[in-house]
Amino acid sequence: MADSIKPIWEIVSEMGATIPKEEWDKVRKECHWTYDDYLCAWDTGCKNCFQFTEDGPHQNKFAYCPYCGLPIVIVVEAEKEVEG
Ligand SMILES: [Zn+2]
Question: Is the CB of residue 29 less than 8 Å from the CB of residue 70?
């Protein structure tokens, strides 16, 4: 059956290969954005920085990272939810 195209990480894991984290980063399928309160800008998963005039990526209809072209996933830092 050759009618389905599998992503590379699926093929690799089926082969039982072990890949260092840095290598997985190269084949990642999402760009994780985190908000930097201090800079009032977004750190992108591909080591860039982006600043919106207002609101965040979703409010500005950003679905894909302008730097690496991967879908944007907003990462909310858990520690910021802790109060006190
Ligand atoms: Zn990116």
Answer: yes
**Which residues are found with C-beta within 5 Å of the ion, ligand 1?**
31, 44, 46, 65, 67-68
pLDDT bin (cut points 50, 70, 90) of residue 21 is low
Output the CA 32–ligand 1 centroid distance in Å.
7
Count of beta carbons in the 10 Å neighbourhood of residue 75: 12
Cα angle for residues 60, 46, 75 (degrees, 5° grid): 55
Measured in Å, residue 33 CA sits from the centre of ligand 1 at: 8
For the stretch 26-68, pLDDT in tens is: 667 899 999 999 999 999 999 999 999 999 999 999 999 999 9
